[in-house]
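Internal tracking record. Fields below are filled automatically when a chain is submitted to the structure queue. Please do not edit lines marked as system-generated. If the sequence contains nonstandard residues, flag them in the REMARKS field before resubmitting.
Queue: standard
Priority: normal
Entity type: single polypeptide chain
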Amino acid sequence: MAKKKKENYGNESITMLKGADKVRKRPAVIFGSDGLDGCAHSVFEIISNSIDEARSGYGNKIIITRWNDGTIEVEDFGRGCPVDFNKAENRYNWELVYCELYAGGKFSDDEYDFSLGLNGLGLCATQFASEFMDVVVHRDGTEYTLHFEKGENIGGLQQSPYKKKQTGTKTKWKPDIDVFTEIHVPDEFFHETLRRQAVVNPNLLFVYRSEQQDGSFLETEYIYENGISDYVQEIADEKAMTPVQFWTAERVGRDREDKPDYRVKLSVALTFSNQLNLLEYYHNSSFLEHGGSPDRAVRSAFLSQINAFLKSSNKLQKNESLPIFDDIKDCLILVSSSFSTQTSYENQTKKAINNKFVQETMTEFLKHQLEIWFIEKPDEANKIVEQILINKRSRENAEKTRLNIKKKLAGNIDLANMVEKFVDCRTKDVGRREVYIVEGDSALGAVKLARDAEFQAVIPVRGKILNCLKADYPRIFKSDIITDLLKVLGCGVEVNLKNTRNIPQFSLDNLRWNKIIICTDADVDGFQIRTLILTMLYRLTPSLIEKGYVYIAESPLYEITTKAKTYFAYTEKERLDILKKIGNSKFTVQRSKGLGENEPEMMSLTTMNPDTRRLIKVMPDDAIAMENMFNLLLGDDLQGRKDYVALHGADYIDLIDVS
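SYSTEM-GENERATED OUTPUT FOLLOWS
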C-alpha cells in the first residue's frame, strides 16, 4: 500500500495554472510531447500561420531561418498579423494573439476558407514555450515590434512609421530548454516539412536557410508548380505503369443531421507501379501521419472498384479469393490533399482527422473516378489488376511458406521429438549450456566422448549445407539440416517477409544456449563448412552474431610429441616457436587429423575443456563491412568475387591445402 502523504488535503489544495505556466509546465498537452517532437511541432505552428496567409492569396513566399543555437525565424509576406487595439474585445490584438490561448482569427470562415490553424492555440503556446520571441509586423503603414521573454511581454507594443508597400510578419524565437528536453530541431525536420508543404500548396515558394559552422547560411528552395500531381510524377519517374491521374472536386455536407453544413475540397494524384508504392494524406496542408478519414476512404473505394472489375472481367481463377487492400497498396502511389471549413482532428498535433462527411464524400468520389478511368482506359485497367493479382498470389505463396516454417520450427526438443543425432546436455541453466555444431558423424563420436555432458551438447552437420545467401527462403526451409539446427537453437528466425505475424518471432529469451560453438576440421573442407554455417546464422539469426553468442573452436594444426611432453600448435608460427623451445630433443611432428580421428583426451584438452581450449568469438566489429564481405564472397556477385580473389589471392597462398 502506498505511503500516506500529508493529511491536510483541503479546499486550498486545488490550484490552477495561470498565464504562461499553462504551457510551460505542461507542454505535452498542446504539442504532444515535451521532447524534440513537441519542440518541432511548436515550430510548425508558426510556419502554418504563414501558410494560411499565403493560401488565402496574401504572399507567395515564406522564408525560414535556423541558427545553430536553436533560434528560428519565420518570415512571410502576407497582410501582417493585426496587433493594434481591438474595440470589440476592448484589448490590444497582440495581447489576444500572443498571450491568450483560444484566441485568433480562424473561428469563422470570414478570413480563411481552409486553414491549418483552428483553435487559436499554436502561436500563443509557442510564445509561452520560448526563451525569447521577437515579432516584427508591417501593416497599415506602420512597423510594429514586440519582445517576449519566457512567456512575458517586455516593453509593450512599439510602433514606428513604415513607408514601404510590402506587408508581412517576421517571428524570431528560441524554444526554451526549461520547457522542452531538447530544442535543436534538426535540418531533416525542416527539409521534410517544407517539401511536404510545397507539395500541397502549389506555387508557394519555401526558402530554408540553415546556419553552417562557419556562420554562413545554406539556402534551399521548395516549390511545386502543379502540387501533388508534380510530386507523384517525381516519385514514380520512369517506374510508373500508368500515366499520373489528377482528380479534384468540391462538395458540401455535414457529419450529422443536426450539424451545420461545411465545404470540402478534394484533390487526389495517383499512379500504379510494380516497383514503388506510397500513400500520403494531407488535410488543410497538415500531413496526416496516421491518416484517419482519407485513408479509410481510399481503402474502401479502391478495394470496392478493383474487386468489382475483377469479377466482371473473369480474371480470377475458379474458387480464387479476392485481393485485400495490401495487394493494391503494394503497387499504388497516391497522394491526397483535402481541405474543409470544419475539421475534426484527433488532437492538436493534427496527425489524423475523423470527419465522417470527408470519408463518405471522398469514398464516393474515388469510386466514381476509378469507374470512369477503368471504362475509358481498359488497357490501363487490365495492366493494374494483373499486377494486383501478382501481388495477391505472391502474398498467398509467402503465407504458405510462413506456415510451413512455423510448423517445422514449432516442435520442442525433448525425448519424444528429438532432432536426429542431437545429443543434449543435462543442465537446464541457459547461462551454462553450450552447443557444439560439429562436422559429420565421425566428429560427433569424438566430441561426444570428449565433452562434459553436464553442460555441453552436440549436433552434427551432415555434409555441406546450403549457401543461404544464394538460396531463397522456401528452399532454405526445405533443408532438414538447417531446420534441425534452428530447432536446436530454439530462438526462431529473423525472416524478412511480409505479414510475419504467423512466423515464430525471433526472441533471445527463447535461445537455449549461452554459447554456440562451430567446430570443424582445420582443412579447406572444414573452413568451407564453417563459413556456410556462419552464413546461415548471418541470414536467419543475425542477432546471435551481433550479441556475441557465436564462437569458433580452434583445432590444432600440428601435434608435436617429445619423450617428455606433447605440444599442440594452432598456427605455423606456434609450430616454429615450439620447435625452437624443444631444441635438440628428439620429437615427431604430425599434421592434425580430422576431428573424428582424434583421441577423446586430445579433443577435451584442445577443443572442449573451458580451461584449455581456444575459442574465437565471432563479432561484427563493422556491421556494414561484415555484410558487404558476406555478400561479396557468398552472394551472387560473381565478377566482384573474381576481382577480389585476383587482388587479394596472394595474401592467402600460404593457407592453401595442396597436400
